[in-house]
From TrEMBL:
Domain RNase H type-1, chain residue ranges per copy: 24-155
Documented EC number(s): 5.4.2.12
GO molecular function: nucleic acid binding; phosphoglycerate mutase activity; RNA-DNA hybrid ribonuclease activity
Span list, region Disordered: 1-26, 156-177
Pfam families in the cross-refs: RVT_3 (PF13456)
Keyword annotations of the record: Isomerase
Transmembrane regions: none
Name of the protein this chain belongs to: Putative phosphoglycerate mutase
InterPro entries: RNase_H-like (IPR053151), RNaseH-like_sf (IPR012337), RNaseH_domain (IPR002156), RNaseH_sf (IPR036397)
Top enzyme class: isomerase
Length: 231
């Protein structure tokens, strides 16, 4: 069994000139899968490649960095195609559980994403180098080996120093707090114990950058507690 990992920088490389184009015209098969934990998030792909007699000839597993699920799925396809080109296999049947990618390659869906279009174009270019290529969709439970290899790639990548976090950082509505609109608040003035039941005096203000600003007051009066009420 051969284990091979294709560096992500080679997704668009053509290494066919470096390979010995020795292979037969027999069909090989590939099961590929890709995923991202967070979408986008730490991503990887895996693929199991088998000869015509069903024997495993390669396992591909690569960590891709902080990417989307669809990017990872296409990376798996590109990895399988490059393996076939490099090793002189001219016919490949590929199975993926990504219905989107399969139907895009089949021409049933358009590729509208600007992030996926270069990957799609490169996949079609590599497919054109083969004498025969077939792609089909399968449910995830029929793609277990490729799924396992993809998860192993993500596990390896997430253990590397400086690798991407498990989930993307949450976006804040106002990244620049200085531009955030003020939040109106109201303050209930503390009355003497005998007056608590009847007191309804209020001070009004707002908060900005975590600081309380009182309208018409330089500072909070002594002896009060603050209750913030969003208006």
């Amino acid at each position: 069994m051969t284990t091979r990992s294709t560096p992500s920088s080679s997704l668009f490389s053509d290494q066919s000139s470096q390979s010995s184009r020795s292979s037969s015209g027999a069909w090989i098969s590939a099961h590929c899968d890709g995923g991202a934990r967070g979408n986008p998030g730490p991503a990887g792909y895996g693929a199991l490649i088998q000869a015509a007699d069903g024997s495993v000839i390669a396992e591909l597993s690569e960590f891709l960095g902080f990417k989307t699920n669809n990017f990872a799925e296409y990376s798996g396809l590109l990895g399988c195609l490059q393996y076939a080109i490099d090793h002189g296999h001219s016919r490949m049947k590929l199975v993926s559980d990504s219905e989107l990618m399969v139907k895009q390659i089949q021409g049933k869906y358009q590729v509208k994403s600007p992030d996926l279009k270069p990957l799609y174009d490169e996949a079609k270019r590599r497919i054109a180098k083969l004498d025969g290529f077939e792609i089909s969709h399968a449910l995830r439970h029929k793609n277990k080996d490729a799924d396992r290899l993809a998860n192993e790639a993500m596990d390896r990548g997430m253990k590397k120093p400086g690798s991407a976090p498990a989930t993307a950082p949450k976006a804040t509505p106002y990244p620049d707090r200085a531009t955030a609109p003020p939040v109106p608040i109201a303050y209930a003035q503390k009355a003497a114990p005998a007056q608590v039941a009847s007191s309804s005096a209020m001070l009004r203000g707002f908060t900005r950058d975590g600081v309380i600003h009182i309208l018409g007051e330089d500072r909070l009066p002594e002896g009060i507690f603050v209750k913030i009420i969003r208006e």
